[in-house]
Amino acid sequence: MKPSRFSYLAADSVDNAIDMMRENGEDARYIAGGQSLVPMMNFRVAAPTALIDLNGVPELSKTQDGPNGQLQIGAMTRTRRLETDPSIAKKNPLLSAAAAHIAHFQIRNRGTLGGSIAHADPAAELPGIALVCEADIHLRGPRGPRIVTAADFFKGVFTTAADNRELIEKICFPHWPPQRRWAFKEISRREGDFALVGIAAWFDINDAGTISGCAIGAIGAGDTPMRLRRAENILRGSVPSIDLFREAADAVTADIDPLDDIHASGEYRCEVAAVLVKRTLTEAWECSQ
To answer: Mind listing the pLDDT tens digit for each residue in 200-219?
Structure first.
């Protein structure tokens, strides 16, 4: 199939893009890499009256250091850059590692960080990383700028806290301590497919040898990316060990509610999520030894 008729507009600044959105109404859509929106248009799942192209907006592709060691990444930053840029890998290695699992390199060459987060597919890697890293989403629209935490941004399948007229300017990741333990794992039917389930985790160890802070996130396990709070509470304040990680894994099913679909049952996804939590935490710990 082919998309329904639409107007094409190329913005050259954020303000210009917002003006175009204001002039074309709520049925207009911003387009970044187009790796999700264009297929939806071809199947007429989405039928925008106008596309506002953000590829000519240079400020949306900037990556810079923010206050207190924060990493600020422009929404139009390509997934391939997240994967290959050594400065990004140094400042947030979990983000870089997860990006390598996304689809195939041709798609990573075009897809963007902001586009993936705005699309909010619950099985997508980048929304899950934004959540587990406690990132802030910087939005701009006709009513001005605002900041929404990743925890408040994802509302449901393909649904976010962003207004239809708002675009994502940048995503800001907090400081990443150099000694932080982390790992990312996912299971998919084939390489490049969306994850049936994926787990991202990090934890910090204090001078007493106990876990002082941690986060565990799951993708493909519900209507949005999810934090596994029960498992996190088990880790926090404890000494890392295989038995501890097993106990955390056993608590996973109380935090998730995956659906059945043509690819896997909810029961299977629950079982896989528990296994992946144990493996992810173990890998994070063993890689630090």
So the answer is: 999 999 999 999 999 999 99
